[in-house]
């Protein structure tokens, strides 16, 4: 039996069975990655790291969407 990995996304607790990257997580939740800023454990995460950075136990991820308007 695989161990469940708890993590927090925008203040809500989620669980995953598989080791996933930040990019896979964003894709799963269908975020438009062109208009995002991602905070990973209280640090702004550069987009170039999204495909290699793995979600581990109790990580905290905050997604900030950029919206234009006037």
3D architecture notes:
It is a single chain. With 70 residues, this protein is mainly beta. Helix content is 10%, strand content 34%. The chain contains 1 helix and 5 strands. It has one helix at residues 22-28, and strands at 5-9, 12-16, 36-40, 43-44, 59-65. A 5-stranded mixed sheet has the order 2-1-5-3-4, with no helix packed on it. A hairpin with a 2-residue loop joins strand 3 (36-40) and strand 4 (43-44). The radius of gyration is 12 Å and the shape is elongated. The chain starts with a strand and ends in a 5-residue tail after the last strand.
What order do the helices and strands follow?
A: EEHEEE
User: What is the number of helical segments per DSSP (H or I, 4+ residues)?
Assistant: 1
Report the radius of gyration as a whole number of Å: 12 Å
**What form results from the Cα inertia axes?**
elongated
Give average pLDDT, whole number.
92
Strands across the major sheet, in which order? 2-1-5-3-4
Task: Give structural attributes.
five-stranded mixed beta sheet, 70 residues, mainly beta
Summarize the structure.
By secondary structure, the protein is mostly beta strands. It has one helix at residues 22-28; strands at residues 5-9, 12-16, 36-40, 43-44, 59-65.
């Amino acid at each position: 039996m695989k161990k469940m990995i708890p993590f927090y996304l925008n203040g809500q607790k989620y669980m995953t069975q598989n080791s996933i990257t930040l990019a896979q997580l964003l894709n799963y939740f269908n975020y438009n990655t062109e208009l995002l800023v991602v905070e990973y454990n209280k640090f702004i995460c550069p987009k170039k790291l999204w495909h290699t950075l793995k979600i581990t136990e109790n990580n905290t991820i905050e997604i900030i969407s950029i919206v234009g308007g006037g």
